[in-house]
Amino acid sequence: MPGPAIQAEEHERVTTRPAAVVVLAAGEGTRMKSSTPKVLHELAGRSLVGHAVAAVQELEPDHLTVVIGHGRDQVAAHLGQTPGVATVVQEQQLGTGHAVQVALGALPDLDGVVVVTYGDVPLLTGATLHELVDAHTADANAVTVLTADVADPTGYGRILRDDEGAVRGIVEHKDASAEVRAITEINSGIYAFDAAVLRSALGQLTTDNSQGELYLTDVLGIARSEGRRVGAFVTDDPWQTEGVNDRVQLATMTRELNRRVTERWMRAGVTMVDPATTWIDATVTLEQDVVLRPGVQLHGSTHVGAGAEVGPDSTLRDVTVGADASVVRSHLVGAEVAASASVGPFSYLRPGAVIDERAKAGAFVEIKASSVGEGAKVPHLSYVGDATIGAGVNIGAGTIVANYDGVAKHHTTVGRHTFVGSDSVLVAPVELADGSYVAAGSTVTAGTEPGELAVARARQRNVDGWVARRRAGTATAEAAHAAQQRAGDDHVEGESV
Ligand code: UD1
Ligand code: CA
């Protein structure tokens, strides 16, 4: 069992739990130029909407609703695997205000805080959402918007403030005067609302704007005009408010997210020789004193135990690596590498490969659905499939387990401390007993009993004079002749002494 993974420090939180979180994800995402809905594009091992859901789940809301529209079937199917997430379809994308109307329409009457976020803002963290809700409750606001000061605010809604600095409202870029466009504080599109104020203000939205949409942003001005408290929580980390609209932004966000993930693990005690070429999914867990060499990619549910070394140039997906194990220049999927085991260079471990403690899968070795027992070795140029290799076994170079007869796969067992000579073929199903031997170059089709040597190859036959007769005049024939002369001379000299 792997030990507890090191985690970023968790603080005791007393954040008000929202009555609902609404994630907006109905938009088309035309600029992705993709047959895959935008929010299903992936970075760091999760879809865009998966990142959104993971962040808002940290708020532990009573309801979590994702508003879907474009690519609804695919998005709904994708989210169907996530417990606690409901989807609601917005048939036509009539604006962000309309999207939230649709979401609330599908929910029971709510009391308390409603948080709204987007499905395409992958760097937003649960911690920032906690801070937003904390500020919202601490200031007793009716609406609190997450804002950021950015160098280039083009395209974003701008935050209007009065002389005291209180938030007056939001103006969309397309509706803004030159004066308003000079404002650099932008609307992230992420908010905490009082449920009752939100519901009432949504009922008052109009399409009286340049895009003819129902703007969620207008809720702030409406609430304020009704004398409600409207506030802003300014983040000093604008990355967390940035959305993904095309594949260039997807790559930029992927790199930044990876920078954050690698930095978090380094601070938690993991050595990375080159974090820029080390790619770690958000779902991966590592223990202290892991060493990751350049060109390592860790994906999915991969876990690496204390003191283990991975890399250079290795890809691991859904793999467990035990303490002090080593994986060098290899590709592993769904495999388990136990403590102090070693893999590579140039191994390919496929689902169900289990390399037990201190065992070895060496150079140019492929292993599938097989266990390699404690201290056993498959050191060179082998294929092992559907096999149970006992503790202390040595599998000679070039050995192949022939597990497939063209119709079905069969199992092979190699007993404890059995020695399989180089270049053997073990034709499954076959069972080699504990403590037996297979002679090099054997094609093994029948099992052994303990202590037996299996020799399964044609006996060698040497044909005298064949080269002189059949290859006369070649360099080989000359070499043979010269060697025979020397042997003759030696023989004569030997005799004369
Ligand atoms: C919106 C904000 C803007 C803010 C910006 C931040 C409004 C009117 N404007 O602008 O102030 O600075 O986000 O990125 O809210 N969506 C739906 N259904 C719809 C419309 C949108 O689900 O009918 C979803 C989209 O999929 C997207 C999000 O809402 O995830 C934002 O929509 P988008 O059209 O990109 O809004 P912006 O014009 O960027
Ligand atoms: Ca947008």
Describe the structure.
This protein is α/β, with parallel strands linked by helices and 497 residues long. The protein has two domains: 20-241, Alpha-Beta Complex (Spore Coat Polysaccharide Biosynthesis Protein SpsA, Chain A); 247-454, Hexapeptide repeat proteins (UDP N-Acetylglucosamine Acyltransferase, domain 1). The chain is built from ten helices and 41 strands. Strands 14-17-20-23-26-29-32-35-38 form a nine-stranded parallel sheet, with no helix packed on it. A seven-stranded mixed sheet has the order 5-4-1-6-10-7-11, with helices on both faces. Strands 12-15-18-21-24-27-30 form a seven-stranded parallel sheet, covered by helices on one side. Helix 6 (195-202) crosses helix 7 (218-225). The mean pLDDT is 96. The structure holds uridine-diphosphate-N-acetylglucosamine (UD1) and calcium ion (CA). Residues 24-27, 67, 90, 93-96, 98-99, 118-120, 156-157, 170, 172, 186-189, 215-217, 243 line the site of uridine-diphosphate-N-acetylglucosamine. UDP-N-acetyl-alpha-D-glucosamine binds at residues 24-27, 38, 90, 95-96, 118-120, 157, 172, 187, 245, 350, 368, 383, 394. Acetyl-CoA binds at residues 397, 403-404, 422, 440, 457.
Give a brief rundown of this model.
It catalyses: N-acetyl-alpha-D-glucosamine 1-phosphate + UTP + H(+) = UDP-N-acetyl-alpha-D-glucosamine + diphosphate; alpha-D-glucosamine 1-phosphate + acetyl-CoA = N-acetyl-alpha-D-glucosamine 1-phosphate + CoA + H(+). This protein has 497 residues and is of the alpha/beta class.
